[in-house]
Amino acid sequence: MAARRLDGAAWAARLREELTPRIAAFTDTAGRPPGLAVVLAGDNPASEIYVRNKIATVGAHGCRGELFRLPATATLDEALALVARLNADDSVDGILVQSPLPDGMGRDAEQRVFDAIDPAKDVDGFHAVNVGRLVQKRPALVACTPLGCATLLDREEIPVRGRHAVVIGRSDIVGKPMALLLLHRDATVTICHSRTQDLPAVCRTADILVAAIGRPGFVTPDFVKPGATVIDVGINRIDDAAVAAALFAEGSAKRVQFEKKGSVLCGDVHPDVEAVAGAMTPVPGGVGPLTIAMVLQNTVTAAELRAAARG
Ligand code: NDP
């Protein structure tokens, strides 16, 4: 039997709508809407799309979204100066710096920039203060993608307490915060990575399997316990015919899409997993829209928390 589809896009629409009264109440009291500043450095085409989506979403729900562009040649000092200006601007509640930053800014540029953001405005939840609060189970602003995944599990009423959750990936922005959110919901959590031995066997013990790897179709049916819930965080664009042919059987939905358009989006989970899993997020239309909804939610939360802190 095919896995139940966990419709992230539908939940995201509902979650955004649920924020409307909070946005109206803040705007009423503050005399201005919650404000999100998005910093985009360089001209990465994927980043352009993500940033456009985030600004359009906050704008469509009565918040103020503003884009601040830096050229690809900008220095790290220029990026830090922009962040300092946004930190000082009281009409800005949330600051989001789109990664990746241009190579010219240096290897640790992202960390330096994230560290410079006022933790109260850190809607990405990447600042050490917000990560620390999450570790201590007193979260304020939590990374949007794992927060979206955890919210999906909550809303779908998928049992987490006492279950075994396996997270593949240990990045600071997805894998680690995801593991903490599952732990705080009383799951027994295993974090896997590129050095994990016999990964399929470990994954097969999971009641909830989260894949955040960045490798198209990596999680195949032999990784999945029958009936498990599978959350696919990966977003990979395939535009190579040989890769598409190797991954997707002739006549399958993804192969047909590829043949029509010349490219196809694929998660880290192979579509054949649908025959084994109990429930599964699609790509696209799963975790992606939830991430954007959480950007809106965190912007509203940041605005409310800043107002409350002012008294
Ligand atoms: P990173 O590259 O930072 O981390 C990838 C993780 O996967 C690492 O921990 C790495 O292990 C692990 N990994 C890589 N290869 C293997 C392997 N062969 N076996 C086991 N583990 C492996 O990626 P991110 O966490 O930033 O993103 C992961 C995916 O999620 C990407 O596809 C990205 O595009 C997508 N994404 C989607 C979002 C959305 O809104 N849907 C938002 C953010 C990301 P190690 O640490 O050992 O190197």
Characterization of the model:
The strands form three sheets. A six-stranded parallel β-sheet has the order 1-11-8-7-5-6. Strands 3-2-4 form a three-stranded parallel β-sheet, with helices on both faces. Helices cover 43% and strands 15% of the residues. The chain is built from twelve helices and eleven strands. The chain has helices at residues 8-18, 20-30, 45-60, 76-88, 109-116, 128-135, 144-155, 175-183, 199-203, 241-247, 253-261, 287-310; strands at residues 4-5, 35-41, 64-70, 94-97, 164-168, 188-192, 208-211, 229-232, 236-238, 264-266, 279-280. The mean pLDDT is 97. Helix 1 runs parallel beside helix 12, helix 2 packs parallel to helix 12 and helix 3 (45-60) packs across helix 12 (287-310). The chain has 311 residues and is an alpha/beta fold. Strand 5 (164-168), helix 8 and strand 6 form a beta-alpha-beta unit. The chain is globular and about 55 Å long. The protein folds into two domains: 32-120, Rossmann fold (3-Layer(aba) Sandwich); 145-288, 3-Layer(aba) Sandwich (Rossmann fold). The longest helix has 24 residues, at 287-310. NADPH dihydro-nicotinamide-adenine-dinucleotide phosphate (NDP) binds at residues 145, 168-171, 173-175, 192-196, 199, 212-215, 233-236, 268, 287-288, 291.
